Amino acid sequence: MNDIAAAQKAVLAIALRLADARLTVGTYGNVSARVGDFFVITPSGADRRTLRAEDISVVDFATGKWTGPKPSAERALHLALYRTRSEVGSVIHAHAPDACTVAATQRELPALTAELAQVIGPSVRVAQHAITGTKKLERETLHAIKGRQAALLANHGAVCVGRELEDALHCLEVLERGCRVFIETEFKRAASYVGSEPARAMREHFLRACASR
Ligand SMILES: [Zn+2]
User: Is the pTM of this model over 0.90?
Assistant: First the structure.
């Protein structure tokens, strides 16, 4: 993607799709794309529904300075990912509901689905908790995402990367699905089953009640 205006339009379209698919909460989360010596990123705290393409901030790689509205508070994290991963052309950070649930457990997500192993890697690590916009969050995220296409941020959300915007969005969808499967299979083990004898008694009671009608 070499044209900044086209990249701003594409970032806005992906940000709207995130909101429509409920893959993030309110104004949380951010989307960016690399364009030569710059990257374009959703602005800080903006309502996606009223955003225009020209409101997508343009950040200079070398200086970190921007044009347009103030970019997302996570711009330094996006910048760090672009600097350390030359193949990365897009970054999405989202507070996706199921990813947030798993991130709150601070447990590494195993590859429970084929697509997770294929698209993201052998697992999804959790970056240790850190305040938004801090060097610690950058450091922990870079460590957690090493050799992967996604990481969970402890008690916070998820970060996904891709060559193109569509790849990063697909990665987030695969991660969210993987988190759902993990929640369903792992945490619901806490359920208590009624047992075969009470179940048989309930069935017989029901049949007797039906017969006496
Ligand atoms: Zn966040």
Answer: no
Angle at alpha carbon of residue 153, lines to 135 and 25, rounded to 5° = 110
Catalytic residue among 54, 74, 184, 204: 74
Q: 79 alpha carbon to ligand 1 midpoint, in Å?
A: 15
Q: How many helices and strands, by DSSP H and E, does the chain display?
A: 7, 10
Does 54 qualify as catalytic in the annotation?
no
Position 206, amino acid? F
List pLDDT tens digits, range 62-76: 898 999 888 888 899
d(CA 152, CA 12): 23
Q: Are 99 and 176 in contact (CB under 8 A)?
A: yes
- Quote the ligand 1 centre to 27 CA distance (angstroms): 9
